[in-house]
Amino acid sequence: MIITSEWPGYILDIFVSEGQEVDEDEQLILLEGTDDARTQFFVHAPESGKIAKILVSDGEFVQDDDELFELSETD
Fold it and tell me: I want to staple 71 with a disulfide (CB 3.0 to 4.6 A). Which of 14, 16, 48, 49 is the partner?
């Protein structure tokens, strides 16, 4: 499963690492929006699994629907 960004923004912090198991609704990443208020928002895990691959890095700008993580089933 690929986890994508819902809105455009700058990556402020990534809370997970590759190989880490996560729970459903766990916070994975913090982004800062491009609106005037620079609203911060989190991307959460849509289901439990393992972070197979991180596809972005701190400080990077992402558009809505850009791929952030690859999530696989736990062993």
Answer: 49
- Residue 7 amino acid letter: W
Q: What is the pLDDT of residues 7-18, one digit of tens each?
A: 999 999 999 999
Q: The pTM is what?
A: 0.90
Residue where the block lists tokens 């982004």: 31
- Counting every residue written for the chain, the total comes to 75
| CA 14, 72, 2, 54 torsion-angle sign | positive
**Residue 50: is it exposed, middle or buried by C-beta count within 10 angstroms (0-12/13-18/19+)?**
middle
**Cα 73–66–4 angle (5° rounding)?**
35
